[in-house]
Design goal:
single chain; mainly alpha; 63% helix
């Protein structure tokens, strides 16, 4: 009976260690925040005037996964019928 408890404890600890290694910062193949570096580059390009405001807003919306806030939202809602 004690031997079975030891084996169960062994497997529980092993699984816990594997999960901890995978979930730790810097673990795995993908970086934690790849879009933050891309957003920084995008902001720099916009600040240098390499891209227009519309292009900046469109690309930022793609990176963040949010709808673009284009010229229509800056000046208010579009009039009815348009």
């Amino acid at each position: 009976m004690l031997g079975g408890l030891v084996w169960i404890s062994f497997w529980v600890i092993l699984v816990w260690l594997l999960v901890a290694l995978v979930r730790r910062p810097g673990g795995g193949d993908a970086p934690r925040a790849p879009s933050s570096e891309a957003l920084g580059i995008l902001e720099e390009r916009y600040a240098r005037g390499e891209i227009s405001r519309e292009e900046f807003l469109e690309r930022r919306s793609v990176l963040t996964g949010t709808p673009p806030s284009g010229p229509a939202s800056a000046s208010g809602p579009a009039p009815p019928g348009q």
